[in-house]
């Protein structure tokens, strides 16, 4: 423990954000670093608890948080970087966009503000890149065995890196034009600039990982080819089948899935020219975002930057409380109201709202969304929370663009899943054993494709577990 009294002497200091008036004019990152001196002070707040809940309960990759906090307090940045990388292949990603499950279980957060763990993680790895400490780590000995990884989101990337470092030849097949999955074609640049993914991809290429992009496995290459040409196959295709809103008017022009919108803006930022007739633009429009979660918040930030008029976000569930309730104690994840940087940039948030009908004009263009207010006060007979519509509470939201951000149901059940004959679980995700083996010999799966839509840090953790399983399979 660096400083026994750090948590008494120092208050939590958040990393600064660029002012709203400036940041909404571009897609560059909102958050800025703390000075190293201030960050070292923040690390001194760590109490080095006997039982570090941040590490054991909170963080899915079990980052060694108290140890790296201590190292930062003692200015041992390079040692801290090695420790960080021993658990997490992509700390520059989690350091930017992880919801910091660790901080929710930080002991300090029982009655004070948690240690700024995510920010410390980010600045450790960024110092590593700046100093040139992060270089390719190719395997000393090659096995001659070949592994195909399908999908290059965080799960596939991390697994590919770990398998290559064990000496196997890895080819990552990706259907999009560049690797990264949702990191590249979902999460907006103002949360995660794509140059941070490219830097890590270069390291992986230096370790021998080959990326074959623009290749849809199951369509451009067959399942049979994969099974014949590789000693093991790892499926990391994400959970990309979106939940839809099947209400009247769904087919009107101006109603889109959130991912269509977010992906298009990320491609435009990359320099891709999108023809005007395919462009989904929020400029000058009234927007309704359906879904109160993080994807919805990302849509709000992009709409604001595109020059939207009014933005309203509606959510079926009631507004969460400002603080923890009795049935949601530390160190569990707090189910509380969260305000993202996009919300700060301006939008109305409406809770306990049901969407009834999209209404259009004679040309089939969206003009408004008919809604109804919901009453969640009475649980059903089994005690579960449920809602009923409040009679006479119908109202309309003016909207020329509606973005559906209601989550994802399961992975796509396309030719790859069918031709590999992969068994699915009751939710439609790929069924795996505890060692992530699928129902087909030599085929493994990981990430959202197995868990359902989740978080980057969980995809990283599962990618590492999958790599261990594949490496063990190849060592037989
Ligand atoms: C808009 C949005 C914002 C998010 N923000 C956050 C956040 O801030 N923090 C956080 O922790 N999590 C966030 N998430 C969740 C997080 O991005 C996912 O949990 C994570 O990306 C899952 O990783 P994955 O590798 O399993 O799948 P994905 O990232 O979905 O990658 C799967 C890849 O497989 C490819 N693929 C699919 N089928 C094939 C095929 N047949 N052949 C070849 N390639 C194929 C896809 O093109 C894709 O590149 C967000 C999700 C969304 C949608
Ligand atoms: S990966 Fe996420 S949960 Fe783990 S230490 Fe980093 S910010 Fe916390």
Folded structure, characterized:
The protein has about 475 residues and is of the alpha/beta class. The protein has three domains: about 5-130, Alpha-helical ferredoxin (Fumarate Reductase Iron-sulfur Protein, Chain B, domain 2, Orthogonal Bundle), CATH 1.10.1060.10; about 145-240 and about 410-475, FAD/NAD(P)-binding domain, CATH 3.50.50; about 245-405, FAD/NAD(P)-binding domain, CATH 3.50.50.60. About 35% of the residues lie in helices and about 15% in strands. Helix 16 (about 340-345) links the parallel strand 8 and strand 9 (about 350). The longest helix has 19 residues, at about 455-475. The model has no long low-confidence stretch (mean pLDDT about 95). The structure holds flavin-adenine dinucleotide and iron/sulfur cluster.
Give the gist of this structure.
By secondary structure, this protein is an alpha/beta fold.
Provide tags for this entry.
476 residues; alpha/beta; Fumarate Reductase Iron-sulfur Protein, Chain B, domain 2; FAD/NAD(P)-binding domain; 5-stranded parallel sheet; 19 helices; 14% strand; globular; binds flavin-adenine dinucleotide; binds iron/sulfur cluster
């Amino acid at each position: 423990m660096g400083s026994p009294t750090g948590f008494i002497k120092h208050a939590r200091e958040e990393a600064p954000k660029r002012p709203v008036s400036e940041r909404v004019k571009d897609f560059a990152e909102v958050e800025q670093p703390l000075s190293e001196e201030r960050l070292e002070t923040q690390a001194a707040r760590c109490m080095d608890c006997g039982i570090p809940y941040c590490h054991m309960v909170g963080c899915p990759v079990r980052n060694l948080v108290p140890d790296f906090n201590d190292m930062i307090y003692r200015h041992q940045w390079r040692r801290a970087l090695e420790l960080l990388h021993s658990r997490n292949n992509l700390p520059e990603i989690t350091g930017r966009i992880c919801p910091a499950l660790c901080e929710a279980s930080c002991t300090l957060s029982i009655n004070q503000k948690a240690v700024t763990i995510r920010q410390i993680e980010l600045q450790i790895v960024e110092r590593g890149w700046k100093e040139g400490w992060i270089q390719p780590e190719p395997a000393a000995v090659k096995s001659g065995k070949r592994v195909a990884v399908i999908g290059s989101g965080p799960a596939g990337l991390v697994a590919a890196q770990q398998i290559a470092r064990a000496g196997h030849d890895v080819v990552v097949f990706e259907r999009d034009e560049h690797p990264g999955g949702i990191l590249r074609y979902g999460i907006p640049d103002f949360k995660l600039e794509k140059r941070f993914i490219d830097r890590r991809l270069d390291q992986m290429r230096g370790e021998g990982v080959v990326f074959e992009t623009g290749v849809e496995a199951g369509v451009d290459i067959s399942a049979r080819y994969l099974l014949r040409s590789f000693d093991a196959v790892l499926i990391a295709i994400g959970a990309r089948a979106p939940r839809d809103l099947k209400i009247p008017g769904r087919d009107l022009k101006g109603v889109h899935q959130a991912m269509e919108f977010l992906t298009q803006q990320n491609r435009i930022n990359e320099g891709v020219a999108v023809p005007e007739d395919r462009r989904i633009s929020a400029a000058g429009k009234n927007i309704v975002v359906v879904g109160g979660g993080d994807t919805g918040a990302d849509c709000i930030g992009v709409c604001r930057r595109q020059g939207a008029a009014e933005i309203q976000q509606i959510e079926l569930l009631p507004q969460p409380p400002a603080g923890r309730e009795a049935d949601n104690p530390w160190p569990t994840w707090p189910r509380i109201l969260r305000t993202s940087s996009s919300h700060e940039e301006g939008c109305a948030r409406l809770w306990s709202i049901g969407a009834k009908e999209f209404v259009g004009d004679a040309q089939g263009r969206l003009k408004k969304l008919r809604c109804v207010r919901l009453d969640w006060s009475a649980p059903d007979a089994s005690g579960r929370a449920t809602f009923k519509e409040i009679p006479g509470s119908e109202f309309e939201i003016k909207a020329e663009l509606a973005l559906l951000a209601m989550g994802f149901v399961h992975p796509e059940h396309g030719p790859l899943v069918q031709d590999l004959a992969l068994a699915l679980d009751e939710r439609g995700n790929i069924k795996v054993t505890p060692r992530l083996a699928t129902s087909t010999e030599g085929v493994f799966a990981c990430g959202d494709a197995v868990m359902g839509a989740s978080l980057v840090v969980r995809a990283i953790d599962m990618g590492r577990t999958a790599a261990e399983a594949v490496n063990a399979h190849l060592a037989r």
